[in-house]
Amino acid sequence: MKPEKPTTLISTFDEKGSTIRGKSLVDDLIGEITFTDMIYFYILGRMPTPAQTKVLDAVLVTLVDHGMLGALSARMVYNSSPDAIQGAVAAGMLGVGSQYGGVMEQVGRILEELIAAADPDAKAREIVAAYRSSKRALPGFGHNDFRPDDPRTPKLFQVAEAAGVPGKHIAALRTLARAVDAAVGKHITINATAGMAAVLGEIGVPWKIMRGFALISRAPGLVGHIHEEQQRPAAHYLGRLAQRSVEYAGEKPSSS
Amino acid sequence: MKPEKPTTLISTFDEKGSTIRGKSLVDDLIGEITFTDMIYFYILGRMPTPAQTKVLDAVLVTLVDHGMLGALSARMVYNSSPDAIQGAVAAGMLGVGSQYGGVMEQVGRILEELIAAADPDAKAREIVAAYRSSKRALPGFGHNDFRPDDPRTPKLFQVAEAAGVPGKHIAALRTLARAVDAAVGKHITINATAGMAAVLGEIGVPWKIMRGFALISRAPGLVGHIHEEQQRPAAHYLGRLAQRSVEYAGEKPSSS
Amino acid sequence: MKPEKPTTLISTFDEKGSTIRGKSLVDDLIGEITFTDMIYFYILGRMPTPAQTKVLDAVLVTLVDHGMLGALSARMVYNSSPDAIQGAVAAGMLGVGSQYGGVMEQVGRILEELIAAADPDAKAREIVAAYRSSKRALPGFGHNDFRPDDPRTPKLFQVAEAAGVPGKHIAALRTLARAVDAAVGKHITINATAGMAAVLGEIGVPWKIMRGFALISRAPGLVGHIHEEQQRPAAHYLGRLAQRSVEYAGEKPSSS
Amino acid sequence: MKPEKPTTLISTFDEKGSTIRGKSLVDDLIGEITFTDMIYFYILGRMPTPAQTKVLDAVLVTLVDHGMLGALSARMVYNSSPDAIQGAVAAGMLGVGSQYGGVMEQVGRILEELIAAADPDAKAREIVAAYRSSKRALPGFGHNDFRPDDPRTPKLFQVAEAAGVPGKHIAALRTLARAVDAAVGKHITINATAGMAAVLGEIGVPWKIMRGFALISRAPGLVGHIHEEQQRPAAHYLGRLAQRSVEYAGEKPSSS
Lengths: 256, 256, 256, 256
Description:
- The structure is a homotetramer.
- Helices cover 61% and strands 5% of the residues of chain A.
- Chain A contains twelve helices and five strands.
- Chain A has helices at residues 25-29, 35-44, 50-63, 67-80, 85-93, 101-116, 120-133, 152-163, 168-184, 192-202, 210-231, 235-245; strands at residues 7-8, 11-14, 17-20, 23-24, 247-248.
- In chain A, strands 2-3-4 form a three-stranded antiparallel β-sheet.
- The longest helix of chain A is centred in the last third of the chain and has 22 residues, at 210-231.
- Chain A starts with 6 loop residues before the first strand and ends in an 8-residue tail after the last strand.
- Chains in contact: A-B, A-C, A-D, B-C, B-D, C-D.
- The interface between A and B is large, with 91 and 91 residues.
- Strand 1 of chain A pairs parallel with strand 5 of chain C, so a sheet runs across the interface.
């Protein structure tokens, strides 16, 4: 298997500076567009419309914070190696996995199926039934802390609708939610992960890279906790607390 | 050593939603501020002025791209585990270490020393002499690819000055650069890492957390390469190329 | 959802020292058992028999090296942050993902299905047919470099059989291989990943944690490359080579 | 700066199999040497003597366990992404940083200085005085939990001495300890990190790569905790506990 020589559409540079997707970094990008514009442009290869930037800002703001729970690994690693904060950020990033960022991907994929379906309501009932019959949780529904509604979801819809997005993904998520409520027999929370998958779909983000946007927004959240750890350390306390809280229930040493 | 019970100034939540540094996530932040504002606010605990946002946008845009070199680890890891892109982003983040993000910290620290000095020119000469006598490279000066000047640095200064920053850190960096050129006897490039440390200093970012801003801006750069790898794979080719390019120069097996 | 207070069966300590799964670290383990014994004991909670140790040594030795390709991320990260080699090892570890360590898990799972089957030959034909009809590669078969046979697989079987393992997993893999060859109409390589899954199964390692053993054996492989990078640097060269080898095929900047 | 084409002394392969440092993987290594031998051989390029293997086994056994504290990041990441345990192991590895594995490096370096000194006692007094005058903790001395002595240190010395190592590094550490006790005016614990640095020095491990051995031994410790998490989950509980235990002490939202 001889792989063909690959090329890139992303960037190149010469002694005068970098070209990124056809733009001069220095002349066209630095000082000319916002970081949010750059994120969209760099990943998707086209400049966002003002509506797309507005929605992307809202999504990225939503996910920055994940409390002490989301920052615990990063703080622990910082405490062991304060000279290498890239390790602390990396450890925190590794927690944005299948149970979290991965859920966005699954919701995004389902919404694309619904949009493509001839009868979205029937398709939604079918998807919900398939998850229930295999006893898997339907991705994007339910939340431990926010009931009956995750307040972030309607706010994201409101921002997206005010910005003037097409609305197909949001409509698909509402279709899915109706099918969920009907199947369960009561109202189930549409959590923010589902809401974000819908509005990212609205601005043209393919489901396959949605987890990447969760990772981008988590980065400053982790840096914020690391900066607090520099000033108000909690990791040492939390490590000791974990150690003390999980008691040893195994055998005693025979030699003592 | 019994650590006191720590507290956090960052966030809390109840069933109605999250509070982040005194703001309601849903009412005050999502859809109300940009991601760049949120980054500054979340990490530093105060809303940026429009000038600070402008400068932070410029810095974050500058560092997104680091070419195929900066994305190589992320692409290799993606290729081994395309179902877990958090691992690919984490591997890429781990490359923003002491030789790169760490240089910003060192420059930031030197600039704070110069600002605090009674005679900044004398202090700059002293610092340059100390590095040269211990044969260490002065952080922030010289660049493999961009000579005589790294075009990003003057652009960052221009953006910062147009936005109306105080100017002390930029002035300190210029003082340092004069001392460098005088000591070496020719003009040495002020690289973008130094430029970014100066303008981040201008907007109130402590040197101790500057590497964190490099990490934040690298996140979308890595996600962009992972998305390209999803569509136009290069990692398999590059892995084979690396394997082939570094020849084995050790012993042959005696048993064959 | 209120989680119950968890306990651990792994370890505890007091001012006299640590207890690990009922043994005193100092009196019973350090200097008393080998690292390989400790790996088995710590993870699985029982001391290995001499045969199990012999097989585990063979598996762990097999996977240490993965050439320059397997070490590329680690070397790149080391080059960016030589002061924090834990980052380089972590980046290398992240490459032992679904396409590699994950394959062992899948093979291990299939072998357990075959062992449990009333008619293993029929079950093997069924599994092979299912993979082929969904156009997925059957995990554990085929190899880019080693044909017709991966020489590691028969050696692992020979070590395991000489040590006197029960033989059920090896037999199951041979059953599977016969079904593969019959379906394809020619001999397909049983690769080392499959061979290792079989012999790990023989010594009682559940398929769910097999990837963990791949990670353990890769650790010294990465440390070996990092130590070589300390003495004979290759990462800078390889990064530049990657940069140069993937040409930019995007638009030229309109502003230049 | 044009880097020369690098070569490697580690490994190569052809269609018949791999050669590792002059040995055939299949004929000379798998089933022929232990994992511990392979670790030494792969990293240092020479087969260990039986004494060196004995000491390396003891060191690697010592560091496997680091309790719930050392496994906290790995468990948290496993909980977020149970399909990608390489991420959990990587996160745990990132905690073996400057405050831990890095201490071994520093002790190892000091021991080499003492061995090279004409008057080791005077050199030891000088080193201790330098640390004390700059108010830095001397690496390798003191322990939160084990006083007056860390029981692992004498056991490591006993294993090394029984195996018949040269003894220079152990003697140097004892010299350093005498200088520490004299300067402080009471007995200070020689912790296991110092003990391991000494005995690794005895078997020819350069201080620059000692942290790598800590990383290797931590790998199975993390895999053991991940396997326990698969069966007896604790991470969800510990994350919630951390969240609850660090109270928010910031402003209340003005909008509520």
